[in-house]
Amino acid sequence: MSFFARFAQNRGALVGLFILIAIIGMALLAPLLYPESPWRMVQRPFLAPMEVEGFWLGTDTMGRDVAAGLMHGAWVSLLIGLVSTTVALLIGVPLGAVAGYYGGLVDDGLMRFTEFFQTIPNFALAIVLVAIMQPSVVSIVLAIAIVSWPPVARLVRAEFMSLRHREYVEAARLVGQTHGTIILRQILPNTLSPIIVLASLMVATAILLESALSFLGLGDPNVMSWGYMIGAARTVIRQAWWLSFFPGVAILLTVLALNLVGEGLDDALNPKLARERS
Amino acid sequence: MLYARLIVMRLLKAVVVLFLIVILNFVLIQLAPGDPAAIMAGEAGATDEEFLRQLRERFGLDQPLYVQLWRYVSGIAMLDFGWSYRQGMPVLDLILARLPATLLLTGTAFVLSLALGILAGSMAAARVKKPSGSLIMALALIFYATPLFWVALMAVVLFSVYLDWLPAYGMYTVGAGHTGLALVLDIAKHLVLPATTLALFFMAIYTRMTRASMLEASQQDYVKTARAKGLAPRVIQRRHILRNALLPIITLAGLQAGQMVGGAILTETVFAWPGIGRLMFEALQQRDYNLLLGIFFFSAALVIVFNIITDLVYRLADPRIKGAS
């Protein structure tokens, strides 16, 4: 069975992929459909959805178009989710690889370090980091990466520990390959599938974290994000529930889609496990 | 005796972790752009030169870094978390005043999510490959993917604004002057919405964990033996599978404690629940960094205490594990 056929066997994964493509489409079309800044006031404030033609999701407290904010927000959420996950992988994969490959004292030290970061309440740490570095896309990405790399390190370490005494690794050692080559060329490629699955779930968590930070007012003041829209509408929830409702649905769908795709990837990359589970 | 030694070991480890967090706080203050004195003053005193000079002197900001670090660490060792210039109170007093509300909220949500999560998870495990089992898992996935603060806001709209069943803000009715049982009931009524929304996310996690853990336990030999003996499936499910599946759930529940703190920050913000989460939001809005770092330290300490408790519970529940691991 091909990779995609195995992926498609999981119905949920297909639904997730479909939603995800739609949201990527929203992000790509945003500059075309709403070329002007989503921060611009375009109508009178507090328009209900469908009240005025052309503003089908209504306007917010400042008369900004909610639909425009949603489309531009898609771009920000996906971007921050992807970049922060990449940064977390760049921290977690090398740490886990080194700890798992060398073992012993190196492993002990690195795992204590990882444990320390796992003990700290991660959302509280992200808040403190963004608040002190001042809110911006860069500080948000860094904060999310810093709180989400430990699971990567643990996963990669476990994989390396189980692979480092395999015959092909011993053979590579015998022909005189350096440690660096063995780590990068022999073992790492064999750990990719669980890393890919974990990464897709991490993008989802990163999007949730970003929205929560923006909700608390720690978003980049120059970019429109879903979390910001909900946070800004929080105080007028009694008069205008839709201002918070639509961005929340957008976050929910994106995170749900990424989780479904992650499960599908897991099935497709680890066919044996998938059969055992169902 | 073994437990006594274990507790001492865990406490020592906790002290090391807390010490590292204090150092992390110190590094963060140093890394922050601008004058550390202005940061400690929460930018409030930035205009007042005399005040900043006093701060620099008090914290020895004109001294070398290691002297500053020593002063900072020894201050916190004596429970001196500094002064919140915005609120005009010592940081420690502010946090201690808000701590009980947070413990009430997170404690209720923890018990609620664990009980409902285990119930839903074991129902789903008993109904594998049936539509009802899939439905439970689909709901769990949706709750897992929903932003907590959004659920909280929607709960306010539905249950408080439209249906008018439950109060949406605060911990008790202001000015009602309830005492005794009336006060308890009043607080309980205010607790329903925040505790339920906070619990939903964690319930989703425990449901998934319980189901996975039970499916794994059902593959074990002792389950086959029980089946071969002809025990009723219900009895096997409850006595043989669930009991063994609960152990990993205790461990994982302990690891979720940090997440619970994060959830409390968001729910308390939405529901104006007067705990340390709401205090953190207020500190953020007022750029009261001293208070912010104090709350950060306290939330980490809470998580460590909770981890030690779950660790001990785990060892009591499973006597096979001995000594420190």
UniProtKB/TrEMBL annotation, chain A:
The chain crosses the membrane at residues 12-34, 74-102, 123-147, 195-219, 240-261. Its main location: membrane. CDD domains: TM_PBP2. It is found in: Cell membrane. Keywords: Cell membrane, Membrane, Transmembrane, Transmembrane helix, Transport. One of its GO terms (biological process) is transmembrane transport. It holds the Pfam family BPD_transp_1. Belongs to the binding-protein-dependent transport system permease family. It is a multi-pass membrane protein. InterPro entries: BP-dependent_transpt_permease (IPR050366), MetI-like (IPR000515), MetI-like_sf (IPR035906), OppC_N (IPR025966). It comes from Billgrantia pellis. Residues 74-262 form the ABC transmembrane type-1 domain. SUPFAM superfamilies: MetI-like. This is ABC transporter permease. One of its GO terms (cellular component) is plasma membrane.
UniProtKB/TrEMBL annotation, chain B:
The chain crosses the membrane at residues 12-32, 103-126, 138-163, 183-206, 246-271, 291-314. The keyword Nucleotide-binding does not apply. GO terms for cellular component: plasma membrane. Keywords: Cell membrane, Membrane, Transmembrane, Transmembrane helix, Transport. It is a multi-pass membrane protein. The keyword Transport applies. It is found in: Cell membrane. InterPro entries: BPD_transp_1_N, MetI-like, MetI-like_sf. SUPFAM superfamilies: MetI-like. Residues 99-314 form the ABC transmembrane type-1 domain. CDD domains: TM_PBP2 (cd06261). GO terms for biological process: transmembrane transport. Belongs to the binding-protein-dependent transport system permease family. This is ABC transporter permease.
